[in-house]
Amino acid sequence: MNKGDIIWARDREKHPHPIVFLKQERNGTFSACIITHEQGNGNIRMEDEHFCKVDENNNPYSIKYENTFLVHRRLSKENSWITNETVKGRLTEVGIRYVESMIPTNTESHPDAVWNWNED
Fold first, then answer.
1. 5-112 maps to which CATH number?
2. Of residues 2 and 120, which shows the higher confidence score?
């Protein structure tokens, strides 16, 4: 996986939002962030320029900008949390820089879905 790749969680019913892969960590974990269509809870608006439209073979990505928001958290997840490494979307370099500038550098491990988090 590469920084900026967009993938799905293994359990899409419990975790229905796409995941942006950021970095492979030690001990079988990776850091990531979540994108959503939900605009509340401090989520940050993204722009069309943040998303690649097609892959290297000119095939359209299934995950693209559609009134998309960034969840203001950086997560640490087990590698087994994802179904496979099939990339369904990709952030542009501008999108990667935007995400990295907008989310905290520390990671959180949280088993629940995004909407179950309590804000501080």
1. 2.30.30
2. 2
Q: What's the rounded Cα separation, in Å, for the pair 91 and 53?
A: 9
Q: Which of 113, 94, 116 is nearest to 19 (CA)?
A: 113
**Contact between residue 63 and residue 89 where contact means Cβ atoms under 8 Å apart:** yes
Query: Torsions phi, psi of 53, nearest 5?
Result: -90, -35
CA 1 – CA 112 distance, rounded (Å): 24
Give the pLDDT confidence of 63-117 residue by residue, as tens digits: 999 999 999 888 888 877 776 668 999 999 999 999 999 988 766 544 444 433 3
Q: Which residues pair with 30 in a beta bridge?
A: 24, 77
CB within 8 Å of 112: residues ≥ 6 apart: none
Of 15, 17, 6, the C-alpha closest to 69 is 17
Residue appearing with tokens 């990339």 = 87
Domain residue ranges of the chain, discontinuous segments joined by +: 5-112
How, if at all, do strands 75-78 and 69-70 pair?
Answer: unpaired
